[in-house]
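Here is one chain, start to finish.
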Amino acid sequence: MIASITGSSGRIGFAGTAVAPPLSTGIRLPRIGTSIALTAAVSVSSAPALLPRPAVTQALLVGVSMAIALALAWSARHALGTRRPAGFGARAWAAGTGTLISIGAVYSNILWQNTLRAAMATRAVDWHYAVDVVGGAACVALTLWAIGFAIRRVCTALGGVRSVVLIAVVGVLSYVVAAPALWSAMPSSFSASNSVMDDTVTAPIAKTRSGGPDSLVPWGTLGREGRKFVSGGFVPGSVRTYVGLDSAPTLDRRVALAVADMERAGAFDRSVVVVAIPTGSGWVDENAVTGAESRFGGDVATVAVQYSNKPSWATFMFAEDDARSSAEAIAHAVAARAATKSTPPQIVVYGQSLGAVAGSDTYLALRRTDPLVCGAVWAGPPAGAVNTDGATVLANSSDPVVRWSADLLWSAPDPTATRHDAPTPMWLPLVSFVQTSVDLAAALDVDAGHGHRYGIDQGTEMPLCR
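Its structure:
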């Protein structure tokens, strides 16, 4: 894991690291600093994670960490000046000890992976996993080393001034041409994906569903996630209203259309109305809706208005205000219409992930002024982004979304803020931040009740307001 690739005496070794002149045996070993850096990289990248991890992901993490460690070792050596390397014995001891520690780290990682997999009822891994991780990490590290070495050779040939000019030109072109082109292509791609008609999802025949008979919202305008929402499980008496981005051109008109379709379907005649704030793509978790319909015995209406067709991460970064504005508009409109009824329904606000971020401020404002708004449920709220006062919070201890923030670099997360669903690794400065960041990519690759997946308790935990 920490062996270096070197040339003849005085040449540059693995990732440009200088090595000592070879002995008569022809064996070349990395400097002590290089061995320490590689050992640290393998140890950090093999530390316990929150979720089961496929071998390819772990190999990428270990390989990239090794390449970064080598680059830092090389940079530090050049910044501090070239020094005479330690003797062969010291370097051999450092390399051998580092190799043993690295093997132990990989073995410990496998044991932890199997502990998580047992808790989450997934298939255990064996020695094949270790082979895939070690082999893949070596390939990743070698590839990045080769790229870095080639860049260094080109920059050396060009000279300092020309290299800076080349880097500046590439940076400007990326900012002026490549980035705008990519960003402009994304909306059309997301829009096309949102409009795709799935032949396995059919229009509802119940009049209590948007897109069904007599609905004011045409089936074709609901969007991919909206069509799934209204065609989901049917509980007699329940109402599901959804308005997609294509259903009306502006937010105000989408909200007005949603309220009108709720009136048509008899939503305000139910005892409870759930205002569901979708995630970035317009998705509303079917588990939450099914749970709510079970909780209230079908005497419930659920309404959702789409505000974006982009993934949640993109909406969170670039259009969070759209999410908040949509949540505020639909919640206030539903509360205002409900107040006109002789027997008004109670209102519960629900959101998962970005939906919780968008809906929390609106819920707090309405709860202070409108007695009909009696509760909220936030599932998987991003760490530090949601005011949870007065709300029911569902957060799995294995969910990286509810743990990840810059604070994780220097302080441990609050264990009381989550419910225990799997073994939780000990917090370590920097290490936990790195591991949790990687876990974000696989947060949805588990069953409900683990990671960023939640079950019907999103609905069954909603408050009984009467």
